[in-house]
Amino acid sequence: MKLKSAFINFILFVFLFCFFPFFFCKKIGSDTEPESIPSTTKKRPNVLWIVIDSLRGDIIGHYGVTPNLDLFQNNAINFQYHLVNAAWTRPSTLVFFTGKYASANPVNFWDYPTTKSEVEAFYRTEKHPLPKLLKDNSFVTYMVGNNPFLTDKFGLGVDVGFDQLYDFSNYNEDTKKITKKTIEVLDEIVSEEKPFFLFLNYNDPHKPYTPPEGFTGRIQTKEILDEKKRNYLGEVAFVDEELGKVFEELKNKNLWDNTLILITADHGEVMNAAHAISPFTGTNTYYGHGQDLFLENIHVPLLIKLPGTTTKQSISSMTRSIDLFPTVLDYCEFSIPKSIQGKSLKPLIENLETTKRTYYGETRFTQGYGEGSEFLLQRSYRFHEVGKFWQGSVGSEFYLYSDAKKDPNQENSLRIPNISALKDMKLNPTLEKKILRFWKHIRSMEPKLPLYHLSVQPESKDTEIQIRVTQGTIRLETLPEDLDLEEKGKLVRIHTKRTKPFEISFEVYPDVSFPEFNVWFSKKQIPKSDIFTGYFGVSMASCQSNCDLLYESGSQRPIIHPNAKVYFWKEGGQKKSYSSKQELGTDALEILKKQGYVQ
Q1: How buried is residue 231: exposed, middle or buried, by Cβ count under 10 Å (0-12/13-18/19+)?
Q2: What are phi and psi of 555, to 5 degrees?
Q3: Transmembrane segments in this chain: where (predicted)?
């Protein structure tokens, strides 16, 4: 017995010694969570990400107002053709921190309020925004700046996981306060053994343009400037001077060399009178932004100083703001999750890029796709919900094609009323094919709308179907050819003499209201008790309110019972909930007024 007991104990010891660590060690390098252990023994680089709000891509080095940025550019990598994938601050910032297009996260990009359901959905689905990811992997993380969309306190944004967040959006004359707090944070950082991630966000030169006295006198240009642009450039000069103080402090504290420093903007600024009234929203956007995806709205600076080097390099290839998240991960030696939609810039920097990057962007009422200098912009209702900016009516969705090589200011775009009209426009066949290809890329890049399916087994030669929505419009996807069809946007009437079973599929565009439908056989309406729905074939009469889940079938086609007269199911997930009645609080309104978002 003793020998047997000793043998059992030995086997138990071997099992615990060999296998116990595997049960308790955290998995690294997976698709959902980047590695948490350095691949080398050296300290990871620090990351300083600087955003200068509203800084256009044609400012640095051209007006004499950026001496510190000019000097930085001479010792860094200058990406000459860098485009943001969203055209105002909140969606653009979320692109920075998720590495995904604006429509890939639940927070809307058409209105200022973030509803409770959007915030909850963001926390549920976005497990690793960049600040949280770095924080969870031994970085100390700070945000210093003016960006009210990085907190959920005011109903304007979401918390992306900083250790410390110092937001100055509720203060007047915030620029100097931001610099002062940044220097205080650097004092804290020096004593930290961990690497740091610091997101520094200056609101200037965002409107209203109110530079301190003397800064407009630094402008050097032969260009005739109006008062607004002169004041805008004065604010650029002001921010540049403040950045000089931050740079000096980094060097004095010996933090400069081992820090990846990234300088960019969240969007540009419209200064071309030809774009004063946005063709997409009808809004006055002169000396503003967020209402279109023209180049002056999306072309911004990108300067990167890599840790341990001050090599000057200039890259003319297109890059996108969606690429910054994976670039930071790459240089910090983390694996890049497959869910990230951007591509690291490291291969481009190291001259190993094999394919050209293409552009896809979204903002209010606008979607766009681009290759090189050519763009197709679409007026779109695709992501809108009923609220301040949209009351539920779907109008025409035209397209604007432009080539910035031939039309640098995009003032003479080719207008296309709709894609079906292309064949009648007598365009060059090569151009026609290109526009059609760009259009297909827009469709492929956007998230798919839920698809509704209706299966009918007629009992007579007289079948009538009515489908109705309260807002948006119905778009039929598939149906038999021998149906009599009447489409009126919110209402579709179908009549047929078919006696064989048939199916129709449709979507609600945008997905803002649930479709109601009725079916009649020989003028006799089919009761809800005879209509079966969803994956499990439950009777529609079994639910009276909040029945979304009842209709879901996921990606699987339900097994339709042979005796079911009418079967209805939804493919593609639940509709995003959005409250059109949410009002901004006083604090939120004051913040937006100070920043020039609302007048």
Answers
A1: buried
A2: -95, 5
A3: 7-24
CB count within 10 Å of CB 550 equals 18
Report pTM: 0.89
Residues 315 and 177 in one domain: yes
Question: 445 in a domain, yes or no?
Answer: no
| C-alpha span between 144 and 201 (Å, rounded) | 6
What is the pLDDT at residue 30? Answer: 36
Burial 34-57 (b: 16+ CB within 10 A, else e): bbeeeeeeeebbbbbbbbbbbbbb
Return the pLDDT at 177.
97
Is the Cβ–Cβ distance between 355 and 295 less than 8 Å? no
HEC assignment per residue over 435-460: HHHHHHHHHHHCCCCCEEEEEECCCC
Kindly tell me the number of DSSP H helices and DSSP E strands found in the chain. Answer: 13, 25
pLDDT per residue as tens digits for the range 229-249: 999 999 999 999 999 999 999
Q: What is the CATH number of the domain that holds 67?
A: 3.40.720.10
DSSP tag of 526? P
Give CA angle at 579 (515, 396), nearest 5°: 55
Q: State the Cα–Cα distance between residues 583 and 208, nearest whole angstrom.
A: 24
pLDDT of residue 339: 92
Q: Express each pLDDT in 299-335 by its tens digit.
A: 999 999 999 988 899 999 999 999 999 999 999 999 9
Domain end position, chosen among 355, 385, 419:
355
User: What pLDDT shows up at residue 581?
Assistant: 57
The C-alpha atoms of residue 569 and residue 366 are separated, in whole angstroms, by 31
Tell me which residues of the chain have a pLDDT lower than 50.
1-41, 578, 580
List the one residue out of 346, 315, 301, 307 whose CA is nearest residue 70: 301
How far is the C-alpha of 57 from the C-alpha of 296, rounded, in Å? 8
Place of tokens 């949209």: 390
Token pair recorded at residue 542: 């079994």
Average pLDDT of the chain, as a whole number: 90
Six-digit token string for 80: 């000459």
Evaluate whether residue 132 is within a structural domain.
yes
The pair of structure tokens assigned to 23 is 């049960």
Tokens of 274: 């030809």
Give the span between the Cα atoms of 219 and 207, in whole angstroms: 18
Quick one: tokens of 496?
């047929």
197 contact partners, CB below 8 Å, separation of at least 6: 46, 47, 49, 130, 131, 134, 135, 139, 140, 141, 142
Supply φ then ψ for residue 494, to 5 degrees.
-125, 135
Q: Which two tokens stand for residue 307?
A: 């840790």
pLDDT for residue 43: 80
* Alpha-carbon span 327 to 307, nearest angstrom: 13
- The Cβ-side half-sphere exposure at 597, using a 13 Å CA radius, reads 23
Boundaries of domain holding 489: 451-595
> Nearest-CA neighbor of 109 among 224, 281, 247?
281
Cα 114 to Cα 228: distance, rounded to the nearest angstrom: 31
Domain count, the chain: 2
* Long-range contacts (CB closer than 8 Å, 24 or more residues apart) made by 338-347: 338/31, 339/31, 339/32, 339/100, 340/99, 340/100, 341/99, 341/100, 341/101, 341/104, 342/99, 342/100, 345/79, 345/304, 345/319
